[in-house]
Amino acid sequence: MSTDSSDLHRVRRRITDCNGNCKPTNTFIEAKFTSVKHVCRAEGENIGGDNYKSKNKFKIVVCKGGRGKPPHCEYNSVRYDDRNIVVGCNEKREPVHFVRVLPDESE
Q1: Fewer CB within 10 A of the terminal residue: the chain, N end or C end?
Q2: Which residues constitute the domain of residue 92?
């Protein structure tokens, strides 16, 4: 886990909720969409309902804070290099919702 100031630049953009407010938390999965899509298929394990846990690990940036007003939302970011994720998948087995980052077993 590390804090990376270059990540802050990336998230100082218009990341808002459905009401136009700064989101309190936003998570970025640093991977191609096809890699995340595979979590809903062969590279994931169904853990209940429409939720699938990744078999492979991903690089993740979690941004928290959401202070300020759009388009000037301010966040603190933390990078995780090797984490499993859980995504919600639709009936076509495509990712439609990020659920959570799973904790590292060594922590």
Answers
A1: C
A2: 5-101
Distance from C-alpha of 53 to C-alpha of 41, rounded to nearest angstrom: 10
CA 12/CA 23 separation, integer angstroms: 12
Tens digits of per-residue pLDDT, 39-52?
999 999 999 999 99
The DSSP element (H or E) to which 101 belongs, if any, is strand 95-101
Q: Which residues contact 60 (CB under 8 A, 6 or more apart)?
A: 27, 28, 29, 30, 79, 80, 83, 85, 101
In-domain check, residue 46:
yes
pLDDT band at residue 37 using 50, 70 and 90 as cut-offs: very high
45 in any annotated domain = yes
Domain annotation covers residue 107: no
